[in-house]
Amino acid sequence: MASYADFKGKPRLPKFASPKRYDVRLKPDLISCKFNGFVSIDVDVVSNTKFLVLNAADLNVDPSSVSFTPKSTSQEFQASGVGLIEEDELLVVEFGDELPLGIGLLNLSFQGTLNDQMKGFYRSVYDCNGEKKNMAVTQFEPADARRCFPCWDEPAAKATFKITLDVPSDLVALSNMPVAEEKLEGGLKTVYFQESPIMSTYLVAVVVGLFDFVESHTSDGIKVRCYCQVGKSDQGKFALEVAVKTLELYRKYFDVPYALPKLDMIAIPDFAAGAMENYGLVTYRENALLYDEKNSAAANKQRVAIVVAHELAHQWFGNLVTMEWWTHLWLNEGFATWVSYLAADVLFPEWKIWTQFLDQITDGLRLDGLSESHPIEVEINHASEIDEIFDAISYRKGASVIRMLESYLGADTFQRALACYIKKYACSNAKTEDLWAVLEDISSEPVKELMNSWTQQKGYPVVSVRVKDQKLELNQSHFLLSDAPGDSQWIVPISACCGSYENRHTYLLKEKSGSLDVKDYQGTAWVKLNVNQTGFYRVKYDEELQAKLRHAIESSQLSATDRFGVLDDAFALCMSGQQSLTTLLTLVASFREETEYTVLSNLINISYKVMRIVADAMPELVDSLQKFFIGLFEYPSGKLGWEPKSGESHLDSMLRGELLTVLAELGHKSTLNEATRRFDAFCADRNSPLLPPDTRKATYTAVMQTVNASNRSRYEALLKVYRETDLSQEKGRIIGSLASCPDPDIVLEVLNFLLSSEVRSQDAIFGLSVSKEGRETAWKWLQDKWDYISKTWGSGYLITRFISAIVSPFSSIEKAKEVDEFFASRMKPTIARTLKQSLERVQINARWVQAIKKDNSLPQLVQELSHRN
Questions:
Q1: Does the pLDDT value for residue 794 go beyond 90?
Q2: Measuring CA to CA, which residue among 236, 211, 91 is closest to residue 153?
Q3: 479 near 460, Cβ under 8 Å?
Q4: Does residue 257 contact residue 124 with C-beta atoms inside 8 Å?
Q5: CA–CA distance, 293 with 130 (Å, rounded to integer)
Q6: Which of 216, 237, 270, 677 is deepest in the core (most CB within 10 A)?
Q7: pLDDT band per the 50, 70, 90 thresholds, residue 2
Q8: pLDDT > 80? residue 862
Q9: Which one from 89, 141, 241, 311 is the annotated catalytic residue?
């Protein structure tokens, strides 16, 4: 005989009953921040049971309200016991007799709190005509619908939803579906929404507050609105335009119409993620949806377009067809990431977005180069483990292997297969192997065999190449940044060009080694593997091929994507100890005349990391290395200048800010002087043309380089700008600049400021990238404040950012031990994976420092490079 104890510690809900339809009524009180609710669920009982087990958390369920009425009879079963297993977030309802098989109605009344954790049913604070108000918002992914109403809170437990809200009559109430009817009674109105199509609980959404909106329609009559705080509707126009065009594009690409009669998008002031794809009511951070022509930078505009395209892709990939369990999260996020770039490329071809996609690949490669990475298909045993896999593996590696597969199969074949997959699994759930089966059927290629090696095991290969007797000799091995040996093996789609892009070869490397005939190869020509970086792997060239590639870069024979690839692989090989820093810097010197945005952006990121590691390994080389990097970035920065030019490209606008930022952090005197001049003018007149949005982050960073405890005036002025702006993008720029100050006392002030009521909880993570001089201060602060940080952010994925941002930059084994000891008694499932990854990064840095100390040729090379400027 079953009992409550039988359900404890179980990762999944039992299968003896499943929901078919929910009728949910909620009454939020935005002053007391409480809510009352009632849910009536059509449940299909499929096997003999006296129990119904569903999810609930942070709710008070009224036991006297719980009943079950079978459709086949009028007999009502009252619950004989209602218990909550808190650690597993389960609600166990026991009845005196076994329930009849078939459909019945489960009724429950409950109460809850509009929390301040940005999950479940929560409150967000906004300003309306100078008055602070609360709005009610839901965020249910991955497993927080249970904090709003008792439910079967698993993605495979799909059902339809009829939502009803009782709210003050002056407020706007939104849900997934259009309003069917409204009834007014006194100061309250009851809003009845149309019943939804079948969907998972994590996609249900409710928002209540005061909003403005802008509206448009697709050509097939879908009403699209962009909601925001009162007075900001003009800032929603760009996202609205992108949304309408993107819906049209996806309708054609997936060959399936958008399934709902309307699409609402809404900017939420307090929001943990970037955005959430709730069916028909997509919620966003303000900085991911709103675009201000006067105050938003080009990078902000691009982010809005990419995020909107990502969330709307989910309306098909995720909402219409849903992963069966969180193991297959990548089916949602990897595809939405990849498709968002497909859409952006169609809408904004001048952005060269597929070249920028290399940043996604690099992020995926860097995380997956850790031994503490995880497979794309990762085993999830408990809801507490889900947050940590919303990471670069699920999103960026997922998107990268999709791009690799599309490149292998061909774009037309791939598109036809995706359309078939969407139609076959519409309104239901799918696993990774279901997608492979459809792709295999349409393409007649061994997709499952090829792709299982990329999704079911962690990591990726490095392919070593050399030329011998007009053959490319290839060897693959598991690449790890720790340079530890790995025994994994992949089926690698190899592409190679020899001397020109017309001379291209392809090969499927199925074993540890293989060779590729290049009979037309001229011995003096360059060889580039992984052409256009479509494959998710690294390439290691022998010394002879490296030299030829350097020449090809200097003589502009390689495409921007391939220049990026050669550079990024070399940096990773250097970091892992497989190549010297001397070799890397010799290659970097080949990029003296580089002007392409994505390549320079990666060079900038590499320069930050190299400067930091050299400061730890050979501090006597820092000044000379700074001169080298300044010389490298002065050339493109000089061409762009400080002022935007009429008709310049979107990419030039983004590049200007990044170049000026790195020059400021490198201590370039003329950049620092010009930045402070412009900042002072801006403080005197906020409409000054001297500080357009694209150079503000650079200017703020430069200003913070000049600040110290005895010279605080510009720091105070920057905080004043922060306090007076209501644009979330501007606040983000300022927070992201503050901790770059080299004065540890100011860094500590900044970190404490992040925990104050002046900074929204979601934004604190933007200020954690501290200067090299502030690292120890930040680590001591994290220890001192950990209890508060853990309590405030500990129930979501943002907590992991505190650990990774502050711990990962260290570079000594002693520091890794110190961090490990501190967290030994503070370990929770929500941070376990992140802590292991951060400690591994520290150990990788420590080994890198030791390798640099042994590089006897480095000092002379750095001196030579610094004198070339």
A1: no
A2: 91
A3: yes
A4: no
A5: 23
A6: 270
A7: low
A8: yes
A9: 311
Task: Count the neighbouring beta carbons within 10 Å of the beta carbon of residue 681.
Answer: 13
Q: Which residues of 458-483 are buried (b: 16+ CB within 10 A; e: fewer)?
A: bbbbbbbbbbeeeebebbbbbbbbbb
Give the span between the Cα atoms of 656 and 648, in whole angstroms. 11
Contact predicate 392/364, CB 8 Å: yes
Q: Name the residue among 492, 200, 417 with its Cα closest to residue 329.
A: 200
What φ, ψ does residue 6 adopt, rounded to 5°? -65, -20
Burial 209-242 (b: 16+ CB within 10 A, else e): bebbbbeeebeeebebbbbbbeebbebbebbbbb
Beta bridge partners of 481: none
* Cβ neighbour number for residue 827 with a 10 Å cutoff: 10
Q: Is 4 helix (H, G, I), strand (E, B) or coil?
A: helix
Residue 386 phi/psi, 5° resolution? -70, -40
User: Model confidence at 830, in pLDDT bands (50, 70, 90)?
Assistant: confident
pLDDT digits over 70-100, tens only? 998 878 999 999 999 998 999 999 999 999 9
pTM summary value:
0.96
Phi, psi of 499 (to 5 degrees): 85, -25
Contacts of 634 (CB under 8 A, 6+ apart): 663, 668, 869
Neighbours of 13 (CB within 10 A): 20
> Which amino acid, one-letter code, is at 688?
S
Task: Please provide the size of the chain in residues.
Answer: 869
Asked if 273 and 265 count as a contact pair (C-beta separation under 8 A), the reply is no
Interior CA angle at 21 toward 20 and 26, to 5°? 145
Amino acid residing at 265:
M
pLDDT number for residue 379: 86
> Residue 233: CB partners within 8 Å, gap ≥ 6?
212, 213, 214, 226
Angle at 774 between CA 768 and CA 777, to 5 degrees: 90
Q: What structural domains does the chain harbor?
A: 1-209 (2.60.40.1730), 211-306 (1.10.390.10), 321-455 (1.10.390.10), 461-551 (2.60.40.1910), 580-867 (1.25.50.20)
> Can you tell me the distance from the alpha carbon of 512 to that of 328, in angstroms, rounded to the nearest whole number?
28
CA distances from 186 to 121, 167, 180, 183, 424 (A): 25, 11, 20, 10, 49
Known active-site residue 311? yes
Q: How far apart are CA 726 and CA 732, in angstroms?
A: 11
Per-residue pLDDT tens digits for 398-442: 999 999 999 999 999 999 999 999 999 999 999 999 999 999 999
- Pairing type for strands 428-430 and 321-323 reads parallel
CA dist 31 and 657 (Å) reads: 43
Selection from 183, 197, 249, 179 nearest residue 218 by Cα: 249
Residue among 369, 388, 364 nearest 833 (CA): 388
3-state SS record for 326-388: HHHHHHHHHHHHHHHHHHHHHHCHHHCHHHHCHHHHHHHHHHHCCCCCCCCCCCCCCHHHCHH
CB 124 within 8 A of CB 137: yes
Task: List all residues 6 or more positions away from 824 whose beta carbon is below 8 Å from its beta carbon.
Answer: none
Q: pLDDT tens, 645-695? A: 988 999 999 999 999 999 999 999 999 999 999 999 999 999 888 999 999
CB neighbour list of residue 771: distance below 8 Å, 6 or more residues apart:
739, 740, 741, 742, 747
Listed in sequence order, the DSSP H helices in 62-219 are none
| HEC secondary structure over 461-511 | EEEEEEEECCEEEEEEEECCCCCCCCCCCCCEEEEEEECCCCCEEEEEECC
